[in-house]
# Entry
Amino acid sequence: MILSIQNVVKRYDKYTAVDHVSFDVPKGSVFGLLGPNGAGKTSLIRMITTITGPDEGVIYLDGEKLNSRSPEHIGYMPEERGLYKKMKVGEHLLYLAQLKGLSESDARKEIAHWLTKFDIKDWAPKKVEDLSKGMQQKIQFIATIIHKPKLLILDEPFTGLDPINTNLIKDEIRQLNESGISIIFSTHRMEQVEEMCDHIVLINQGRNVLSGKVPEIKNQYKQNLYRVEMDGDLPAGFEEKYEITTREKDAVTVRLADESQSNVLLQFLIGQGLRVRRFEEILPTFNEIFIRRVEETDHA
Amino acid sequence: MSKLTLIVKREYLTRVRKKSFIIGTLLAPLGLLIYMLVIFGLSNYEGGGQIKVAVLDEAGMVKQIPDEKGIHYIPSAGKSLEQLKKEVTAGELNGVLRIPAIKSMQTKDLTVFYYSDDKLAPEKSSAIEKKVSDKIRDFKIDSLHLNRSSLDILDTDVSIDPENINKTGEDESKYTAGVGLAIGGIMAFIMFFMVMMYGQMVMRSVMEEKTNRIVEVMMSSVRPFDLMLGKIIGAGAVGLTQVVCWVILSGAVTIFLPMLLHIDPAQMQPPGGGPAGAGIDPEQAQGTMVRIMAELAKQNWPLIISSFIIFFLGGYFIYSSMFAAIGSAMGDDLGEGQSLVLPVTIPIILAFYITAFVGMRNPDSGLMVFASLFPLFSPIVMPFRMAFSPPWWQVALSLVLVVVTAYFFVWLAGRIYRVGILLYGKKVTLKEIGKWMFYKG
# Structure
């Protein structure tokens, strides 16, 4: 485990932002930290990044209780991010890298490496304010990873990026992950979760309401929906036998009692002499799971 | 390098490299230079040009008056007032001065008349009054057959020289108080100005970091307290740099300017030393200058400067930490935060007013003693009193109080800052800020 959160509580005044949350982030994973606005994600991230401390519970980073050296192993790109506008790009990166514990010469080497890699070497003497928003995002990203953290925390990393730069950063995240860096990815863009994450935790009202591996969660939340595309009309008695959830031209989606029934359904259709063009299980999207779980816990 | 050092370095360098800092630092002494040139120019300016005035001396008291201050006096040469008036109308003369006879030697007041359609400039009018008065005095001396040289010995220049009875120390002269007042006043003003300017600079900079969201990035690398302290120290160092530059440059200007213009510094008297024309005896002025210089040399400069620096640092830390705390609680809107800024600026302004209105009249009054010990006032008030050699225990106590208070305020501000800086989109009241002090880390 790169990160282990154990029974963590954070209170502000009378309001409990994080309420006895526990979860583990496996080493080398891309871990989705999900939740609606105000769920307590930021409070949680601030505790992980040692910006604040928990009122109760403990957090372990790579087996070690969080301490004053921990920030050097964490790279954090907050959702609310910014740079010193008047500073030059090169100086700014040097400053942030040194604050993360890099020596000046190491920092300079890393800066040169990343600026070359992103093909933006000539930006170094430019002032931050002279760069476009997307360019500033790139600099911000470099600043986040320049000290080779063990754990990278990205809060909505793609907001404000165009599709080209989004892909560039996505590729970079994948490469970093392949090189062994664990990544916590906080977002409410569910398609990104499905695309990038292998584990998730869903926080609502300060509580852990859902966590686990992405495929397992999808399985757990599937409703045994199957979609059949075919030529010709539905056989007589089909509608009495099966619950149809949606009806399209030449296709229906039906809910089965359990997954063992799928073969039965298929055999029935074939036995009726229908030509089945497509037969597939419909798994819930993360969006649906998210909304369902949030609504359930809101009413609980 | 420690993180705090890195922060201080950045805060210092970005400010010192700013154009506004360089311009401000260079321009202030240049401003002083221009000010001195203007004052010098104005004090030597002869207003209104040359005028011709006929003197109708009805009793023959004044005879010829020498030309002065752009006034050319012409004897009436037997012409009547009416004739002279016509000449004025014709433009041959600017005016006619009619001096009636005095009733007796006992006459103390005399009205003379000036006929003209043009206004007489105040400077010229007082010059005429003085000349006529001098002439009538001469006339009276001659008429009464008095001995002019015995009269001269009647006048004595008196100056008060304070002497100590029990207090040991330097002998004082009448200039001691004046010079002390000047030094103390200048120090109090610099202190007030620097604390206000640099304290508010810290506040704006904290607000800026909060609004452009860099703070969240910074917080994941450094402790909030370090970021705040680094900013305060960095900006304070900029302030000290500026003061040192000003002192050096102003010194250079005051020394080299007179040389440049071939002016005897003794003649450069401050303006407003009496009605124009009240000529200062150059010899006496020279003496004044020498005595002021002697007074300046007599001051315990190492003590004054070192205590100034400690009080400056103390006052600066107290106020800038409060400003930093306020800045962290504020949103993007400066106007909205005014209600938070006011409680911080009031004590500074009060301290300055106490110095200006009470200290200038009586530096050792009870209120001044209190104000020079009270740590929110003392950084401005005590340096002022220092020039009047207050009891050493008061200075020591004041120093201790300032240092302890500064330490406490920085700690307290840190507790407010760490909460405020991460709080967005909420209007904050003083009461809430008070609560933040007791939050756990």
About this structure: The two ends of chain A are 31 Å apart (CA to CA). Chain A has a mean pLDDT of 89. Residues 244 and 254 of chain A are 4 Å apart (CA to CA). Chain A has ten helices and 14 strands.
